[in-house]
Amino acid sequence: MTRAISLHDVSKTYARGVRVVDRLSLDITPGELLVLLGPSGCGKSTVLRMIAGLEEITEGELRLDGEYANDLLPAERRMAMVFQNFALYPNMTGRGNIGFPLRVEAPHADPAPRVDATARMLGIEDLLDRFPAQLSGGERQRVAMGRAIARHPTAFLMDEPLSNLDAKLRNHLRAEISRLTRELGVTTVYVTHDQAEAMSLGDRVAVLRGGVLQQVGTPRSVYALPSNVFVAAFIGTPRINLLRGVVRAPLDGAMTISLGKQYLRLPEPLSLDHQLLRVQQGREVIVGLRSEAVRIGKPAAARPGEVLITGLVEHVEFQGHEALVHFSTGSRPAVVPDLQAPRPVPRPVRRRRREGGTVLDRLRERAGTLRAGPVVVLDDPADAAEAAPEPASPESRAPGDLIVRTVPDIDLRDGMQVPLLVDLAHLFVFDQHGERICPAPARLPELEE
Ligand SMILES: Nc1ncnc2c1ncn2[C@@H]1O[C@H](COP(=O)(O)OP(=O)(O)O)[C@@H](O)[C@H]1O
Ligand SMILES: [Mg+2]
């Protein structure tokens, strides 16, 4: 059985009144893999723990299959959690670990058939007789997954489960998680700060920032139509170029966006999107150009819709299959004051592991099932955020203010002046508050949810 999980105006306030999740509404459909994405400290784990029942919901409503569920004990929710640190019971073999929640749940039933079936599904039959100390990180995480799956939970809640693994293994297990959750058809909420992971894994991605939902949609739609500059900057590699511009919209002349001493001249007749900029006349805006919107090319090579600017090579970053060229254009990089995630509120970090334990223990005691892990707690998620590297903040950019992708063997040296062609069909414009002006919401209806 899989679950519809819905949050309606859910808020979380910890002691001292700090609201770490603010009126979050999300409808997760049965069998869906929804990724909660956001920088460290934005409230992802808190949301997951509220869904699991490990954290009280301060305000708002959680519904499971439409039923009010705020007060359900974790056991009654039958969800399985997988954490970053995949702590297995060290004194139990793979078999013992996977079978443990089954034995707790039904002490008189033989867990072997389920354990074996789970191991087959994960291709870890050969790990069953080994102890955690005899397993690699990836193998441990597979056993941990097995422990979550074996119980046939109604949902998986995964909190940065791959963050501790090296890149190659991460990609491999990511694909495996994607395959498994789809095969099992179990609703999954997957938390990560890694946008590439979110994009490759999610049916939909919900972007959180400072406890506030910024946007939810398919990976394709959040990339193509970020609702604000934060989402635009958070999603996509290399990061979207963000430049400060001023809209010049004379009634008689061509409409332009000036970038320092240069300008983008919008092609006539103005597209519907560009017409929207008329009302911004004289205002400062943020111009967003993803790497696919800019290429190195002579004016004569310009295609329709492309306009010319000039960039000064600051630095060439060789990447093997391509190079990233950092240019300065004389425009100022956009700094949106509230772009950065709010500083995490100070708290007694090191004690959280124990606190988490007590909450859970208390709940279990209330349920009268002292050790019956209702939610399979493989480890406390508290440490996940601390260990995870903070993604580059949108302000922390290299000296160049425009990054362009090229073939790796391009002959460019620092200090060269290079013509750049900007494809205005790929132009994003955000207002001073960071909200997207263009493209307009209605422009690509097939992408907008
Ligand atoms: N038990 C707690 N008491 C007080 N503040 C907390 C507690 N747990 C988390 N926080 C704070 O809530 C915010 C969100 O934390 P968390 O959900 O762990 O973020 P994420 O998982 O996105 O990194 C952070 O500012 C964190 O410091
Ligand atoms: Mg976390």
Summed over residues and divided by their number, the pLDDT gives a mean of 83
* Class inferred from helices and paired strands: alpha+beta
Examine the secondary-structure arrangement and name the CATH architecture of the largest domain. Answer: 3-Layer(aba) Sandwich
Which bin fits the share of residues in helices? 10-25%
Number of strands: 21
Question: Strand content of the residues, in percent?
Answer: 25-35%
Residue ranges: pLDDT <50 for 5 or more in a row?
A: 337-399
Q: How far apart are the termini?
A: 27 Å
Instruction: Determine and state the CATH class of the largest domain.
Output: Alpha Beta
Q: What is the radius of gyration computed over CA atoms, rounded to a whole number of angstroms?
A: 25 Å
Give me the number of helical elements.
12
Shape call: elongated
CATH H-tier superfamily of the largest domain: P-loop containing nucleotide triphosphate hydrolases
CATH topology heading of the largest domain: Rossmann fold
Q: Main sheet, how many strands, which sense, barrel? A: 6 strands, mixed
Strand order of the largest sheet: 6-7-8-3-9-10
Bound molecules: adenosine-5'-diphosphate, magnesium ion
What is the number of independent domains?
A: 2
